[in-house]
Each structure stands twice: as structure tokens, then as C-alpha cells.
Amino acid sequence: MDSTIIVALVSLLGTIVGSGFGVIASSKLTNYRIEQLEKKVDKHNTVIERTYALEKATTVTNEQIKVINHRISDLEGAR
């Protein structure tokens, strides 16, 4: 075989191997970043859930305070 063809085949092989490693490295980095984003989203979702629970508890507490205030005013009016 001619030396030019051998050089071309070696160059082709090198290009294919280099591209393959590049794709693998890029894929690993992308997967890592997706995992980190998923962790952040999970953390955010737990904050949202806790916020809803706190809002519900606040609503109940406010209603209880209203009832207590009405009872106090009724007791003060009975005197």
C-alpha cells in the first residue's frame, strides 16, 4: 500500500477514536449536570411542600384566634 493511504487510514482511525472519547466525556458531564439539577429541583419541591403546610397551619391558627377573640368578647359582654 502506498504510504499516503496508510497515513490517511491512521488519521481516520485517530479522528474516530478522538471523537468517540469526546462524545463519551461530554455525555458524562451532561449526565452529572442533570443529576445536580435534579437534586436542586427536589430540594426546591420540598421547600414548596413545607410552605404549603405552613400556610395551611397559619390559616387554621388564624381561624382559632378569631374564635378565641369572639369568645373573649362574649365573656366581656356578659359581665
List the main descriptive attributes of the protein structure presented here.
79 residues; 96% helix; mainly alpha
What would your notes on this structure say?
The chain has 79 residues and is mainly α. The chain has one helix at residues 3-78. The termini are far apart. The mean pLDDT is 93.
What's the short story on this structure?
The chain is mostly helical and 79 residues long. It has one helix at 3-78.
Oligomer: single chain
How much of the sequence lies in strands comes to under 5%
Q: Compute the gyration radius: what is it?
A: 34 Å
Structural class: mainly alpha
Helix run count: 1
Order of helices and strands: H
Distance between the termini: 116 Å
Counted beta strands: 0
What level of helicity do the residues show? over 70%
Q: Give a short account of the largest sheet.
A: none
Poorly predicted residue ranges:
none
Mean pLDDT: 93
CA-based shape: rod-shaped
List the helices and strands and how they pair.
Blueprint: H1 3-78
